[in-house]
Amino acid sequence: VFSGRLKAGSTVLNATKGVTEKLGHIYLMTGKEQQDTSEVVAGDIAAIPKLAETAGGDTLSDESAPLVFDPIDFPEPLVSLAVHAKTKADDEKVSSSLAKLVKEDPAIRFIHDATTHEQILSGVGDLQLEVTLDRLKSRFHVEADTSVPKIAYKETIKGKAEVQGRYKKQTGGRGQFGDVWIRLEPLAHGAGFEFVDKIVGGSVPRNFIPAVEKGIQESMGKGVLTHYPTVDVKVTLYDGSFHPVDSSEMAFKIAGSMAFKAAVKEAHPILLEPIYDLEITVPDHNMGDVMGDMSSRRGKIIGMEPQGHNQVIKSQAPLAEIQRYSTKLRSMTGGRGSYTVSFSHYEEVPGDIAPKVIEASGKEDEE
User: Fold this and answer.
1) Is residue 290 within 8 Å of residue 304, measured between CB atoms?
2) Mapping DSSP to helix (H, G, I), strand (E, B) and coil, where does residue 30 land?
3) Coil, strand or helix at 287
4) Beta strands 310-318 and 193-197: pairing type?
5) Containing H/E element for 218?
6) SS3 for 302?
């Protein structure tokens, strides 16, 4: 309570969301014990159960004097776990229960990673995630297995290719026929996907061109090296042929997909990995150990700044090398080091590491 008095049974305004809340009980907390109280005043810290709309970070105020405090600046998550239900039957329950726990603790994140198809629980530290999973078990009576999250790699190309995709099928009666020529080129990192229609003279009928693009985009969802998506490419459809009876949207969609896969193989496909920015704050005497460790993780030291008796080391490193970095940093600095991390960009996986990633991806597909 910052100012005034708050009485049990009163109605207050959630000034953050613009809705009113009816208060029931107010409790003063002492460890696990809760003591019912009729009112609290400025300086008190209390618990109010069963609020319908209010979440962490919202401001409650008198309806006649609405006031909204600046939102709390929660730290970015540093540790992540992939969460899997122990049984298929508990899949939905794990997701919905963790979503409720995240609402109570804004420092926790729970997302579905569309690239790796995993549910990722992230927090400030290992202990926070352990407590969250313990609450999942004790409050919602559901258990979950955890693992180190998969890395969201991507694929792209470094070269160019011109390839034909021809699909022909005859099974008695009407057949299927689609024929396209495409040109594949790389785009700048982060540019996404560009499709260019350069068909002239009706070699591919206008109504089949969207099907070609759709077939290409669907093929981009799973690369030729791994099961990770292909990004940052330009495809130009410049020629083809059709059959007046056997051609269909499906045939041209398949032809587009075939052409794209063949073109990627010829255009020097490569793997990309996510690179993260780190700001590591450590005592002066730990600086050498921390910098040496970061270099061993394929990290690049960008710069250093003194901060009292500490040094702030700015660096970049692949996510694959820093997933459990909090434990290592705590060990190296006796618990006195801290760091923040944020996504920076994607970069080509080094040639000596890419085959291992490709091999691991193949094993996942077999499973």
Assistant:
1) no
2) strand
3) helix
4) unpaired
5) helix 209-220
6) strand
Digit-coded pLDDT (tens) for 128-163: 999 999 999 999 999 899 999 999 999 999 999 999
Give the max Cα distance, the chain. Answer: 85
Q: What is the dihedral of CA 310, 314, 80, 50, to 10 degrees?
A: 70
* CA–CA separation, 62 and 224 (whole Å): 61
As a whole number of angstroms, the distance between CA 248 and CA 142 comes to 49
Beta-strand ranges (E) seen in the chain are 5-7, 11-14, 19-22, 26-30, 33-37, 39-41, 60-61, 79-85, 109-113, 118-123, 144-147, 154-157, 161-169, 176-186, 193-197, 233-241, 269-283, 300-307, 310-318, 338-348
| pTM for the predicted model, two decimal places | 0.81
Give tens-digit pLDDT for 36-92.
999 999 999 999 998 988 988 899 999 999 999 998 888 888 899 999 998 888 889
At 72, list the tokens.
């709390």
